[in-house]
Amino acid sequence: MIIEESGLRFGPFNPEQIFHIEKSSFVSSRLSTNGIKICEFVYLSELGDLMLVEAKSSVPDPGKSKSTYEDFFWNIFEKLDNSFQILLAGYVTRDMPLNAEISAPLLAVDWQEAAIRFYLVIPEVPDQYLPPMTDKLNRLFKRHHSIWRMEIKVINARIAQSIGLLV
Fold first, then answer.
1. Residue 82 sits in which domain range?
2. Over the stretch 91-107, which tens digit does the pLDDT of each residue have?
3. What is the pLDDT of residues 65-101, one digit of tens each?
């Protein structure tokens, strides 16, 4: 399975290891109409890591508009947080239609052992800008770190390819 988003080709993935949340009929019919924003997809890696992935083709220049830059990161926070909540709802709620859309391997994740990783992929961001952007996103996810000990990173296409997210 290949997922094309923001000029990138993610994959190839085993469809059983993907919850293409952006294409979920449950999400589009019941949640998106209520303004709930979501990430592109959730991937269960071969190592059992849960990866929630959002892709953007670019990032606003904070020098031109600080508020646009802040809104960009808040929007990413909402997408990843909402997607995580939806994934958890599908996992713990056995009678929801959402549960039927999540593959058996994703439903079988050991939440005590799985590493949880949120990735924002912006293809052309130079390496030197990744740490401050990651810091900014991590500040928004402070409570998630405390509760879930998750990893949140802004990465470029080179790094995404090196960790097996891109073709």
1. 3-162
2. 887 667 888 899 999 99
3. 999 999 999 999 999 999 999 999 888 876 678 888 9
Task: Give counts: helices (H), strands (E), the chain.
Answer: 7, 7
How many domains does the chain contain in total? Answer: 1
β-pairing verdict for 151-155 and 116-121: parallel
Give the residue from 131, 115, 135, 116 showing the smallest Cα distance to 73: 135
Place of tokens 């599908």: 90
In a domain, 23, yes or no: yes
Quick check: is 167 in a domain? no
Instruction: Sort strands 116-121 and 50-55 into parallel, antiparallel or unpaired.
Output: parallel
Is 130 a residue whose pLDDT tops 70? yes
Return the amino acid letter for 141.
Answer: F
Give the span between the Cα atoms of 100 and 82, in whole angstroms: 19
Beta carbons of 52 and 42 less than 8 angstroms apart: yes
Specify the pTM: 0.93
Within 8 A by CB and 6+ apart from 34, the residues are none
- Is residue 81 a part of any domain in this protein? yes
